Structure formats: structure tokens, C-alpha cells
Amino acid sequence: MDEEVLEGGRTTPGVVRIGDAVHRPRDHRSDFAARALQFLNTVGYPWAPRCLGIDDAGRDVFSYVEGATTEHPLQRDERSYAQMGRMLRRLHELTAGTEIALGGRCLVHGDPGPFNVVMVEGMPAALIDWDSVHPGDPMHDVGYAGWSWCITTSGNVPVSDQARRLAEFRDGYDITMPSQALLAAVEERQAAIIDAESRHAADPRLSDARRAHARAAVAWARGDRAIVAANLGVFLEHLG
């Protein structure tokens, strides 16, 4: 059966589709990611692919999820933001206090941006790319998803729409979450990206392409952080 190279979003090099399965190169995170997915499949988490084992070439194999990732709000149903919040909340609830989450409060996906969510008819259908999953603080997922789904300097998205969508995401996750707690989580994730990628950008041991990626990531985080700082009143008004 032919291999179809999967592209778009932030696809890891070497990921291919063969029939109804995705084959992905393994790394040091693969064993834990497989355990996490097997656990989630067992407890009935509906928004994760199934882990199907390792193929003859030594690659991880996962069930393929039909759909596409998104880059702009116009590609999404307005209900998708609250649904994304609910998907993360369920992940955190199902894994809180379990053996697989030892060392953290629960399992966190680690990279729940829109580039790692398969959409069908504008709505989230599955979280993919679980290689960053780990026991940790659920607010790391909340802060990163709230930022990457709702706040952007690109695409000419009105700030009021960004703030409204962030409020919808928050309400889907936990309507009682204080606005300042959510905004602090967003800012913490932006600061973490700026810190880590600034070090990568200055590391001469890395390739030119990796350092260029790091510089772009720093600019992205700084730009989006500036939007919130310059329009804090708008965000607080919508978050209540």
C-alpha cells in the first residue's frame, strides 16, 4: 500500500499515512505517549487517536482521523472554542490522580494549538500529535490553548472577537475560572516560549533553519502578548 506524506500545520518530518493509519518516527517520548493514548482509549476519552503499535520499520502507528487543521478563525465554527475547552477539561479530569499522571496533577497534552486539532465541519474532532504529553499542571494546556486558539496578530481579527472567543474557551473549560487566572496562564506560556526560543535562536550549535524558527516563535509570542497588554480592558470586559 502506498505511503502518503502528511503535510500542513506543524507536521513532524517523516509522518505518513498508509490506509487508515498514521506512521510516525519514534523518539525518546514515544513510549510514554503510547502509554498515555492506551490509557485514554481505555477510559473512553473520545478525542484521541488509537495507538496501534509499531510497524516493521520501527515507526509508531496510530489510527488516522479524517479532517484538517485550521489556521484562522474563519475556518472554524464559533462553537469550536467552547468545545476545545471541554475537550481539555475532560482530558484533565480523566487523568487527575491516576498512576499515569504521577508527578503532576493530571496528564497535559503539552501542545494543544489549532495545528494539533483535527477539525470536521468547523468543529474539533480529535487532538493529535501526543508526543509532548506529560504529567503536569493543567493550566499549561489552558494557557497555551487559550492563546493559540484565540489571540493573534495575523489575519486582521478584531480584538473584541479575540476576547469573546477567549471567554467562550474559558467557559467551556471552567466557567468559574477567574479572568486574571486565565490571562496569567496565557502570559506564562508566552513568556515560556520567548525564554526557550530566545536561547535556541542564540545557540550556534543549532541549524540555521532551527534558529530561524526560534526567532519567528519569539516574534509570534511577543506580538500576541502585546495585543493583550494593549487591550487588557477589552479582554477583561469579555471575560467578566
Write a structural description.
It is a single chain. The protein is α+β, with helices and mostly antiparallel strands. The chain folds into 2 domains: 3-63; 68-239, Transferase(Phosphotransferase), domain 1 (Orthogonal Bundle). The protein contains 7 helices and 9 strands, in the order βββαββαββββααααα. It has helices spanning 30-43, 80-95, 138-150, 159-174, 179-201, 208-230, 232-239, and strands spanning 4-5, 16-18, 21-24, 51-54, 60-63, 106-108, 117-120, 123-127, 134-136. Strand 7 and strand 8 form a beta hairpin. The radius of gyration is 18 Å and the shape is globular. The termini are far apart.
Summarize the structure in short:
By secondary structure, the chain is of the alpha+beta class. The protein is built from seven helices and nine strands. It has two domains: 61 residues; 172 residues, Transferase(Phosphotransferase), domain 1 (Orthogonal Bundle).
